[in-house]
């Protein structure tokens, strides 16, 4: 059975896509970021909670502050990527639920009145949205370099407030010279899928 998505698009989004480690100096425009968001915002989350929040790091000052919290191996590429996005989970996402889930506005209090419940749900659903975001970056013809090697407490103190938890940092841009490491193995279908 073939997929409905064109093979070239399949390659762009999945088969040929890699985590980029170097980038050209071609800027990433606000219009490109808007187009990415306008596409990926339609990805599903539980109760349509949409807890992902994105901080775009563009200024030299903000870049220097962010790089100081990155793991040593991630500092050079974060220093030189045209755009860096901090992807975070909003642990107070429930405040938006009456507008985002109008079919049951009481969900805000019925399911998410406790902070630990919100944090668990926000982390899961924002991580799902982060995956959509990476695919959206690829759909824009750009490369993404997602990273989790950083001082989370430092980034949260520097760029977020107590209601947001950093999930990952993503370098974004056109891939540069030697941008890709070799493709690593993947599990086969029968290693992952079980029919019962």
Word description of this protein:
With 196 residues, the protein is α+β, with helices and mostly antiparallel strands. The chain is 41% helix and 15% strand. It has a 4-stranded antiparallel β-sheet. Helix 1 (7-15) crosses helix 7 and helix 2 (30-40) packs across helix 7. The longest helix has 25 residues, at 115-139. The model has no long low-confidence stretch (mean pLDDT 96).
What secondary-structure arrangement, pairings included, does this model have?
Blueprint: H1 7-15, H2 30-40, E1 52-57, H3 60-67, H4 75-80, E2 83-90, H5 97-100, H6 107-112, H7 115-139, E3 143-147, H8 152-159, E4 164-173, H9 189-192
Antiparallel strand pairs: 1-2, 2-4, 3-4
> What is the chains' assembly state?
single chain
Class by alpha and beta content: alpha+beta
- Strand fraction: 5-15%
Describe the biggest sheet?
A: 4 strands, antiparallel
Extract low-pLDDT stretches: none
Average pLDDT confidence is 96
């Amino acid at each position: 059975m073939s997929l409905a998505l064109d093979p070239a698009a399949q390659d762009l989004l999945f088969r040929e896509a890699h985590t980029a480690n170097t980038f050209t100096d071609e800027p990433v425009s606000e219009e490109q970021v808007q187009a990415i968001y306008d596409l990926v915002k339609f990805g599903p989350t539980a109760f349509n909670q949409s807890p992902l929040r994105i901080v775009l790091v563009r200024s030299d000052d903000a870049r220097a502050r962010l790089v100081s919290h990155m793991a040593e191996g991630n500092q050079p590429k974060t220093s030189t990527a045209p755009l860096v996005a901090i992807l975070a989970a909003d642990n107070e996402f429930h405040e938006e639920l009456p507008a985002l889930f109008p079919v049951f506005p009481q969900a805000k209090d019925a399911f998410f009145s406790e902070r630990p419940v919100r944090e668990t749900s926000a982390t899961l659903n924002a991580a799902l949205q982060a995956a959509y975001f990476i695919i959206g970056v690829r759909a824009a013809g750009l490369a993404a370099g997602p990273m989790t090697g950083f001082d989370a407490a430092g980034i949260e103190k520097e760029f977020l407030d107590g209601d947001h938890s950093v999930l990952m940092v993503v370098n974004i841009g056109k891939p540069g010279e030697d941008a890709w490491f070799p493709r690593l193995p993947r599990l086969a279908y029968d290693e992952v899928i079980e029919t019962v």
